[in-house]
Amino acid sequence: MIKGIFGVNVAVRDLAAATAKYETMFGVRAVALAEEDFAFPGLTGSQLVINGFHLNLIASHRDDTSIAKFIERKGEGLFLLSVEVDAMAKDEADLRGKGFELLLGEAAAGDFGAVNFVHPKSMHGVQVELIQPKRKG
Prior knowledge:
A hairpin with an 8-residue loop joins strand 7 (113-118) and strand 8. The protein contains three helices and eight strands. By secondary structure, the protein is α+β, with helices and mostly antiparallel strands.
């Protein structure tokens, strides 16, 4: 079941400049995200947690990532809306049963937890990330 909105991911060209601007705007220090914090290689980022809401700024250091392709096509901006789920496999099946197209056959998993993505065509141009974060402790 979708538990709620987890956050948003913003595609940026210059991570340092974007991080400084967002920290100034929201008065929150960002935490650096390394490549292993992402489901796919070639990405780096920073995360600002604002009252429990995760605002991720994501940059690419490769030309073949989804972020790089997004910026090339559309420029910087809102890349996806992230929603938290509590049972990834069941939630994937439920969404497929309701006619939503998912980008991955099964969720990608790592130290971050598990993720899959609803195709933007299924959501009026907005990519939605399903995330089941790994619980710490």
